Amino acid sequence: MREPISDFSEAARLDALQQLKLLDTSPSESFDRITRMASQIFGLPIAAVSLTDSDRQWFKSRVGVAHQSIPRDKAPCAHVAESAAPLIIEDFQADAYYAESVLGRAGTRFYAGAPLITREGYGLGALCVLGTEPRKASSSELAALVDLAAMVMNQIELEHAFGRVDPVSGVPTRNQFRDDLADLARDQAGEQYLAVFVDLARDEQISRIARVMGSAQVDEVVREATRSLQKVLGPDRTVYHISSAQFAFLSPPKAEPFAYMQELRAALTSIRQTSSVRFVTNVAIGVRPFILGEVAADDVLRGAASAAQDARESDGVALYSLSSDLAHKRQYGLLNAFGSALDDDSQLRLVFQPRIELSTGRCIGAEALLRWRHPEIGDVSPGEFIPVIEQTSMARAATQWVLDAAMDQLAAWRLPPEEFALSVNLSAANLAEDDLIARIQLGLLKRGLRPEQIEFELTESAIMGEPDRALAMLREMAATGVCLAIDDFGTGHSSLAYLQRVPARVVKIDQTFVRNLTEPGGADFVLLETMIGLAHKLGFRVVAEGVEMQETAIILAQLGCDEAQGFWFGRPMEPEQFSAWRACSSGVSPMQASA
């Protein structure tokens, strides 16, 4: 009989083993390589990295062994773990204790094991080799086995210490997910799984928690979520900590997506109910079906994360959509390509859409519009690339490019300042640029332009994002003499009281209110009549966008609208085309044209 170790020591040893999160993980080539080397050194058919659990010997790596584990009772690797010392059994049949063990009855005659020992001295198990014939082990063979066991421990500690286990949640990280998925694909290629991505909160929500309650509270939210997920998944499933507030795990094999999503909705409800910050965060779950061996680990995670973002617009759980994913990929590709376009004179250009004074029919201005011709995919719609760029740091560079090109063109046209003004669009991101006004003034000065020759358009929503900051910036900008216009008027959420404080001179009524206006009377007519009258009473000059028919222009003129732009007057034109068009324009008002 072997002397058992004390309950206290055994509990500490098992705790050390559990902390390493090795049990019941997928096979790993980094361990298999060492196991094969041990088998080759001894010239034996069987070798294993054997971990001693409370009731079993579980094989993290194995050569020549079909089963994943054997009972711990009378297992020689258990003795190696308990004693933390090498063990040689030259002949099982000559050892009364081991002769009747599982290995002995299976025909094993020789065993050599070297302990896997942590830095704290706990024995986790053994690197062992086995044979079906009695034999001795030379001192050099034993020394090699001890060295290889140390290499196994180094690998264990490396995986645990360097990006394999998150120090806050205590669960495996993205790096471990990659390795585990690769190992799983090697053993179960072709099997269908679902990858589940759990996003605890938006980035700004996490930042708000950290700002108000401290980073320790964020850590507690992560630990709380980890416990909830582990409870939902059970002891046989692994949850991975992918990033600060994001987790992932795999479904059981061949899980049906929609049925599994119903289970996830129930789990989501449980997580929400137990969260200490459930009122200031919102959890989103994305599900990505995939075939093992056909999709890279990072792409599996990316697709599931994309679905999680879609889930924020639904009921909190969403299935991966290829079309949505392709759209996001295209946006990202365009975003990357736009940086190069800014440095390439052949890709970006401005076109100009005329603005017509309705009372005279004269072209008294134009709106500068950015266009992009990608060298491979051709023309890219502004509605596709501009909203994406405005959400990134490239908003500044893009606006500066437009400013420079617009001012260059304005200077080249040499039009009288009192007769013509060019309008340029600004985004909410531009209002956060402290040097924007200085850059505008410098640009005007370098080209000999007067401030009243340029107008800047901003949407109501851009102004209302940070109203106090925006108002301060706009007042300073207006003080320089440039004209400010509120674009897409009527579609935002600003109050009339706030609009009175904006130092704008122009409001541009959005085309949604204009496009279907074909005859007096009706809801559109009444609404436009009210908007134009209200804008005039507030001191604004009114421009109507989206005029596509002469009847619309006539009605707008009758309502007292000051200016209009749209396809009926002229589409956006290249600079030379615009100059020729303006030179030939009739200067006849819509009312006169209809007479």
UniProtKB/TrEMBL annotation:
InterPro entries per UniProt: Cyclic-di-GMP_PDE-like, EAL_dom, EAL_sf, GAF, GAF-like_dom_sf, GGDEF_dom, Nucleotide_cyclase, Rev_trsase/Diguanyl_cyclase
Domain GGDEF span(s) in chain numbering: 191-325
Residue ranges of domain EAL in the record: 331-586
Name by which UniProt lists this protein: Bifunctional diguanylate cyclase/phosphodiesterase
